[in-house]
Amino acid sequence: MTGADDKIDVSEIEELTPPDRTLMGPGPSDVHPRVLRAMTTPLVGHLDPSFVEIMNEVQELLRYTFRTDNQWTIPVSGTGSAAMEAAIGNVVEPGDTMLVPTNGYFGGRMASMARRAGGDVVEVDAPWGEPLEPANVSDALAEYDPDVFGFVHAETSTGVLQPNVSELTAAAHDHDALVIADTVTSLGGVELRVDDWDIDVAYSGPQKCLSCPPGASPLTLSETAMEKVLSREEDSRSWYLDLSLLEGYWGDERAYHHTAPVTNVYALREALRLVAEEGIEQRWARHERLAGALKAGMEGMGLEMNASDEYWLPSLNAVRVPDGIDDGEVCAELLERYDLEVASGLGDLDGEIFRIGCMGHSARPKNVVYVVTALGDVLESMGADVDPGAGVSATRSALEE
């Protein structure tokens, strides 16, 4: 152990050489080379006129990707959880009631953040692996009359895509509740229409379907939501994430609040340029087609998906672990043999599912074939009742359609 007065032999600290993984887990996803190149460009000050122009471009690109005209559309300085806390911690005031879902790990995180903001949390129940039912949401809204309703559009812990979003938002607005949507695993990967679906607040992360390193995370608020933020009687409990203060930096004034992560904003700008070049609807279609081939391969080798077809989430495929197989050992072997990352389950599904991403730059035909081949090989070597060859054949057939 070294102390404050000791010298470090830098020769013992080798040059950084992280392994070159294929990232097919729940995030991060593979980063596009153009995004990596953007991060190597010269640093400028966070109030430099050139950076102010970049800020404007990022905001416009985020509006396109969220499918919104919201003026208040910004990248929060931090990971997706920072955008989540900015959304909940600003909109939920002490004494407010927030209705949250119980059908996944990240609904639980919504509840935790709402409590820390001083809110009273009530729940709308649904089993892990199933979406919220509009009728149950309507019943909970009528019973509790909340100020805020939150839901997870794409639940990373279960592989479930929430359908009927417009029904949920309409029910919430009938009770004058603002709607906060977790779109961390959906933005840029599956259909999301903030304005058309009448979502008041949506937050996301850059490291999933946008294929960008974490550090600057998308957030959008409607005028109604921002009015609530700006009319709070008490300040937000977080100075750093206080949107009434951030308004001065990301609004018209461009006044100093904190030092923005300039390089991460460069990266997000380039990632969003790639979204716009591909076209948002074409990007949604690509994710569905390639994830469909992955799903065909999993089912073709004899594995079962966790979510039913009607609410299957293309960007995050939850696959049931075969009987007698240790999911942690499988994930470790995939790293060791194939430099391939997939993940185990969380919360109620710990040990029961593999979570296999198909997001952004990782959503490519060669990666889909690779993950089906590798997982089949490892499972077969561990004695699982699978047919890897049939899985690969099913994947290739789906890709050729």
From TrEMBL:
Cofactor: pyridoxal 5'-phosphate
Swiss-Prot/TrEMBL GO biological process terms: glycine biosynthetic process, by transamination of glyoxylate
Keyword Transferase: yes
Signal peptide: none
Annotated Basic and acidic residues bias: 1-10
Family matches, as Gene3D superfamilies: Aspartate Aminotransferase, domain 1, Type I PLP-dependent aspartate aminotransferase-like (Major domain)
Pfam family, one: Aminotran_5
Keywords: Aminotransferase, Pyridoxal phosphate, Transferase
One function term, GO molecular function aspect: L-serine-pyruvate transaminase activity
Ranges where the record places region Disordered: 1-28
The Aminotransferase class V domain, residue ranges: 45-345
Family membership: Belongs to the class-V pyridoxal-phosphate-dependent aminotransferase family.
Protein name: Class V aminotransferase
Protein's organism: Natronorubrum bangense JCM 10635
